[in-house]
Amino acid sequence: MVITAEFRNTTVAVVSQYPLLGTLDLASSTGDTIEVLLDRPSAEALRNPLIWQIERFKEEQRKNRMIGKPPRIDQGVDEMGVDVLARARDKVQGVAPGEVTLAELNLARETLGSGGGDIGAALYVVALRGGEADAGLIESFLYGDSAEEFGDLALKCLCRYLGLIERYRSLVRSLIMSDQDAWYGSRAAAIFLSDVYFKNYADDELGCRLVTIFCNSRDREQGAARDALVVLLDIKDKLEDPHGLLPVTPTADVRLIREVAQRRFGCV
Q1: What is the number of structural domains in the chain?
Q2: Which of 7, 49, 77, 262 yields a CA-CA distance of 20 to 30 A from 102?
Q3: What local confidence, expressed as pLDDT, does residue 83 receive?
């Protein structure tokens, strides 16, 4: 059986020998929703390329918004008309051959410094091929109008890719503890960094905050909290719905996640 999905005229296929067991819904911050019939063993294999396609689409939207604005630096198109930054991003993400050159890295740095051009691609390139000294360039996109568009990616770049969680731990914590987003998707972005936050670090209050979010059906980040807790507690293989594919989390899974989390973090 070949399971296929299409997003913006791009087809993604996964070969499976198992019967269909459910659906996977993916919603991007652009408002697009994808529903795909699939089986559990194929879920993660299919979800990753779809998410990658969504991220590429979001970056295309960002670039389109720059059309008509005067560029403040060379936009980086080579003699063959190829977008240099997009190619460099593909290389650091492992979807194109080759290594990022120093010239490409410096172009990405210049792009972040100018605030114009393909910011999304530049963030990936600098975070994955740059170093701690580049943190200031990336951090600027956590604040102001830039955060609405690039805050979630900038936070991930700083904490996960550059490994600077110690420097930004208080920010990640405050975003999770907050009842409202600082920018669109900021709470979810921070929750998805829980594995980095809790690595060799204890914070029972924040752990209990994740439990509270998970137990609140009205909190739109309930699903993010569920996924974070499953990873932190290392209980995926004990769940009826280990990948969180069902529209409603099974009662047994809710009970297990809650009880194990409460024991670990000492929640009341």
Answers
A1: 1
A2: 49
A3: 86
